[in-house]
Amino acid sequence: MEVGRLPISATQKGKLISAGYTSLSSLSSLSPSLLSRDLSITETEALVIIKHASRGGSPSRSPAINGAQTAWEMLHEEELFTRITTSSADLDNILGGGISCKEVTEIGGIPGIGKTQIGIQLAVNVQIPVDCRGLGGKAIYIDTEGSFMVERVLQIAKACAEEMSANYDFSRNGLPSGQVLMQPQDFLENIICYRVCSYTEQIALVNSLDKIICAHREVKIVIIDSITFHFRQDFDDMALRTRLLSGMALKLMKLAKKFSLAVVLLNQAANKYTEGSLQLSLALGDSWSHACTNRIILYWNGNERYAYIDKSPSLRSRSAPYAVTSSGIRNLVSDSKRMKMM
Amino acid sequence: MELLDVGLKEVSSAIDHISKMASPPPQTGLSLMEQHIHHEQLGGHLPTRLKGLDEALCGGIPFGVLTELVGPAGIGKTQFCLKLSVLASLPSSFGGLDGQVVYIDVEFKFSSKRLIEIGAKSFPQVFSMKGMAQEMAGRILVLRPHSLSEFTESLQQIKVSLLTQQVKLLVIDSMAALASGESEQGVPTQNSLGWHISFLKSVAEFSRVPIVVTNQVRSQSSDETCLYTFQGGRSKDTNDASRYDSHLVAALGIHWAHSVTIRLILESKSGSRFIKVAKSPMSPPLVFPFHISSSGISLLDDHGVELVGPDISRIHNQGHSEIINFCR
Known about the structure:
heterodimer; A: alpha/beta; Rossmann fold; two-stranded antiparallel ribbon; B: about 325 residues; alpha/beta; about 35% helix; DNA repair protein RAD51 homolog 3 (chain A); crossover junction DNA endonuclease activity (chain A); Rad51_C (chain A); DNA_recomb/repair_RecA-like (chain A)
């Protein structure tokens, strides 16, 4: 029944049906006073019901053409997508230039592989000004594990600021050379951190992100480190967990599309049994693996750190090495050039 | 909508309102830095007095996060904890935190005699003063929970004193023993600790108190080392004999490994002991040789060797001289 899809309370629906109004067309030409008399509700309530009915039923039932985009239009849009560099040219290469805005990317790996490092590096790199081929935006860092250490952010920010000044073509813009473009403190100021201590807080925060980003339009990246932590313990009802997670994933995807920002989710590794043997995979189960647009797995290959594109609609599955240095994420330097300390 | 018998608009605005109330407050990185580095005691870190380690950890054991000490039996984890307890209870004029320490001693390894010895040898000027030894030792509260549920109760009680900043350091020695007490098989499982891990971390975060946890090791045969699906199978030309070698890994599983912020591995290799910074968001993977002396732990070399690759997370136990055995 079409009336059943109106966004009104159940008692009102019940009253409508028992009074004989089963389809929306029967409501469309009615006056509020008549309806209120029929259903014994107030006139304002009747007005609201008629408004909803005249809007064409539930808001989600939009006609096929409205709201759709042609693939050609999307291609043009995609070319304008800006990407956030990871500061490692090899990694940027396999990512097609960097982490893309408007998409949800999941990065996962075992402890100590560098997930938080990549998160912090991206939070700093998104702030690179447009003059230096960056986005000049702010970052929201949602920390669920307490691994956001300010000292480390300061280190990475300092290194980024120095590199920016070194590479900037001062003469082109008529500025004296050697000037520092951004202070490390400025980088810190543009990272908004939230410390989440339970899964309810996590869900509440993701719900409020829409309003928060409306108020801070310069935010260009949302990093959640890590999305798994609070969902991996104490959940007796697995079905509930799956529902909550998929709800969260949907909201994040909408956020990415609506505000054209990058959403980066850091995930943990877990052991799982496949084909009779124990294998490593990312946590949160198989249903979660469908939730993200892109998936990158970080792993050890011998003595080097590698990133592997596990899932992506537009990128090939490739691996690239990267290194975690005191200045952040950088390209891996080959063995012969590496200095041994001893 | 059906449950509350209200319209969609009311439900959405209720959800928005609840979410706003339940969300944590925002903070900029800058304000975090001001709070932690500029306003906290000792810059937000408890110095261990091991110069190389302190440099690597940007000042010492950081406040507000879990630091784990893992290693085989007899390597010196409890010694390290005792030293840290002394350091935290020292008055600020001597570089300590001037506060109480809660020491949760699950395996009955706490030795007050050894504690006083460490204090007296490391800070003779403090401990020789009359009554100071009693004062220092009086600041260290030792709890001996028999089970995980007792531990939980004690945690709730400690929470208040942690939040009011009377207790400046929490040491749990050892976490693995607590967890294994509960499960039937005697193997510490990660699920039983889930709630405790979250609780510890949130208490640490809000009270900005360092929490040091020790962990045991267990054996794992090479067959069990895991790879991702895309990495394919193990190469066939590895020597068959090495497949049956067992090596040591930290107990409590991969979830615990993700939960701790800093992991310090103590191991013994070719007759010497090493302390490795295996997991730390702000340090390179350094290895320092150390030894145990009457004044606690000291580094033999303040310049650590940087280890490349996953070897930093491996634990070796190849025998060391002088097994530590202090009588209670």
